[in-house]
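Entry 0007
Protein: NADH-ubiquinone oxidoreductase chain 4
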Amino acid sequence: AVLLKLGGYGIIRITLMFTPLIELSYPFIILALWGILMTGLICLRQTDLKSLIAYSSVSHMGLVVAAALIQTPWSFTGTIILMISHGLISSALFCLANTNYERTHSRTMLLAQGFQMILPLMAAWWLMLNLFNMALPPTPNLWGELMIMVSLFNWSPWTILITGFGTLVTAAYTLHMFLMTQRGKLPEYFKSISPTFTREHCLMSMHLAPMLLLMFKPELISGGF
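Output (structure tokens):
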């Protein structure tokens, strides 16, 4: 989560050093947009929970790279917002995936279902973060993705087809991740599952608090350009 966002920050810093040469960046923009679709479709086929979250981050970084290469004020602002907000969400999802792994010793979603019945508070965290990952209003993810999509549409109207389909795929694999981990019947071979710990809820709260701050004070990260 952190390294991917630092890479996006590096792309922004480098593109600001050069005169805008959009023609030279066409192949990279096309690859970034194509990567959004490919990684999203890969997420739909994933059975490994941590791999799904990792590919989800790569899919969001496709938007970041494409927006950074366009080099407009709106695209840079949307890139910064999306990197910060998704960095927090991705880190929190990895933490939740680790809580599941500590109890099941497996990252396969097919072998670890039905946790909502025995860990309802953890299921609430899963639901909240999955909604954030889907860019539910008024989360910073929504503002970042909207600014990037508008910038891409102004650059080329055809990009709305790719970004729109990518948004639908994101919603699909996010709901798939929640349903596979929280719904369904708990496997019978789980004889005993440890309850949630205070440290786990504190960790989730530390991820959620900055997101709530950015929701109420978006100018903290939206006025850089």
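Curator remark: The radius of gyration is 18 Å. The chain has a mean pLDDT of 85.
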